[in-house]
Amino acid sequence: MYRYNVARDGRMASPHKHLLVRAVPTNSGSAVTADLDGLLVVALEQAVAAPYCTARLADAGARVIKVERPEGDFARRYDRLALGESSHFVWLNRGKQSVRLDLKTDADRTLLSAMLARADVLVQNLGPGVMERLGFGSAALRDRHPWLITCDISGYGQAGPYSSQKAYDLLVQAESGLCSINGGPDGPARVGVSVADIACGLNAYAGVLEALVARGISGRGRGVEVSLFDSLAEWMNVPDLQWRYGQSAPARMGLHHPSIAPYGAYACAHGEAILLAIQNEAEWQRFCADVLDRPALADDARFATMSDRVAHRAALDAMIDVRFSPLDRESVVALLEHARIAYGRLSSLADLANHPQRREWPIDTEVGPMTILAPPTAPEAAAKVRRRVPALGEHDALVRAEFGVG
């Protein structure tokens, strides 16, 4: 087995830091259970974006100490729908330790300083300027602790005219233009999950991992800055390019693709729906012959190319509706599978709960065991580990004793 060794790099006097320099055989004979085992992450976090990042770090084996206000992360009170607990908090805080600090007091600022002196990574998404006012600005921390990786998560970035503005998920969905292309002809809509927070948390996670790899080469930490706005704006490149260079904003199409046809939802018998996607001309020909039972349609000038099919979408959709509406959904599925056409059922949450591809992780909470949907990159062995969602201040005594404050 192999394990990353603790390096004593002459370029930086920090012998207690994990630098992730090279793999060497371990003498213990025991299996390495997690990639980031031994890494200490201090998280001054709240809501969704930063907790998403640190949840993934904890999943990979890092020790994550979640620093909460005395009253706790406000996400603990978002709802009471997970057996009386907050669904957001249960999802994003598995495998962490919770310590309450009042950073208005000298004693707790001293404790945080002691934690950061031994930390590998700091992740924070407090309000604009809060860390600097407390004396824990990222640049100053890295000056004191050159190995430290800092990750600052904000609404609009650390600079620019919006840098001091508060931001929440739906506000950024709207500000970034995402809402304007989401929804249907009747109006814009919110994406039904916290997509700005999730995108930002994933970017923060990737940025921290890149910084860890770079530290293994240079021996020095660095700053990572991620914003909700940048995370969604980058995802808007296709509609942005279409509008700026093609002078055409994508129409809101509900469950149909604005620039590919047929690609969307179609009604079957008994009120069920199926989505299908035609991506190339070979699929179009098979779709006409084997699904619609109209092989000559493939040569109809109205539908000769993808652009033609988009232009005559209404006529094409009407033909599909005539074919599908008398058939139950599984009969349509059989036709699509025979023709090797991509499809997806329009699933409810009840369907998701029983989906054959569903993968789950067990977790423990104050109110008892639950399961959550597993992260997509997690190895199968990780599903056997029970992760605990911490009670508020559950690790106060442990952390205070460990870092030298009684």
Give a description of the structure.
It is built from 16 helices and 16 strands. The protein is of the alpha/beta class and 406 residues long. It has helices at residues 49-59, 87-92, 106-118, 130-134, 138-144, 169-175, 178-181, 195-218, 228-235, 237-246, 281-291, 306-311, 313-324, 329-338, 349-353, 396-402, and strands spanning 2-4, 23-25, 40-44, 63-68, 97-100, 121-124, 149-154, 183-184, 187-188, 223-227, 263-267, 273-277, 342-345, 360-365, 368-373, 387-388. The strands form 5 sheets. Strands 5-4-3-6-7-10 form a 6-stranded parallel sheet, sandwiched between helices. Helix 1 packs across helix 8 (195-218) and helix 8 crosses helix 9 (228-235). The chain folds into 2 domains: 2-235 and 359-402, Crotonobetainyl-coa:carnitine coa-transferase, domain 1 (Rossmann fold, 3-Layer(aba) Sandwich), CATH 3.40.50.10540; 263-345, formyl-coa transferase, domain 3 (2-Layer Sandwich), CATH 3.30.1540.10. The radius of gyration is 26 Å and the shape is elongated. The chain starts with a strand and ends with a helix. The protein is 36% helix and 17% strand.
In short:
The protein is α/β, with parallel strands linked by helices and 406 residues long. It has helices at 49-59, 87-92, 106-118, 130-134, 138-144, 169-175, 178-181, 195-218, 228-235, 237-246, 281-291, 306-311, 313-324, 329-338, 349-353, 396-402, and strands at 2-4, 23-25, 40-44, 63-68, 97-100, 121-124, 149-154, 183-184, 187-188, 223-227, 263-267, 273-277, 342-345, 360-365, 368-373, 387-388.
